[in-house]
Amino acid sequence: MDDRAAPRLLVVEDEPNIGATLAERLTREGYSVAWAKSVREARNEIALAPFDLALLDVGLPDGSGFELAEIIRNAHPGTALVFLTAFGDPESRVQGLELGAEDYVVKPFHFKELVLRLENGLKRARYVHRHRGDDRVTIGRAVIQFSSLEATVDGQTSSISPREGALLRFLLDHPNKVVSRDEILDAVWSRDEYPTPRTVDNFIVRLRRLVETDPENPTVIRRVWGVGYQLTLPDPTP
Question: Which pTM does this prediction carry?
């Protein structure tokens, strides 16, 4: 943990022993922690102030972590999301990731590994929002609003995930330069998450659907075979 202000974490866990232990140990790690035992309690916490990251149990007594994730994403798009669950089935994992989750941690877990995954999620959120002067950027046919994690195409606005925002931000930091998949993985993912080059390809496909006029024949995010990807931006007007 660095010397910046303590990140605000919302822990949503209905099992008292797990919730209390997480709140106590994460506080000792330097986080500012609020603990909610239900969707209702979590909504009350969210209404008070935004959080940097929400650690969400999937199974809750009055709803699901997935439902709560949508509420958080609508209210505070910059909040990173990590799901905590006893079920590691692929369908649940895909559902969580489609909601923009940074990670999906299956119980039982090692606490130090959990902290590392939380830090990775926070790192990506900071990366997306660290630029203040270029919050609204046009990339291809899309207007990207990084503060709200939204993309507007042909007048229609949709959400992008923090991971997609971090990938776009990384490409913007290297305009017209070919960056390798390894460079992208190091910046946007982390090695402990066991990503693969195919992970990058899948995210690029999703981003092309936003920014390209013809995603099958991309001209904005180009693939350079054997090397990586290149974000092609027009030269600034003199």
Answer: 0.65
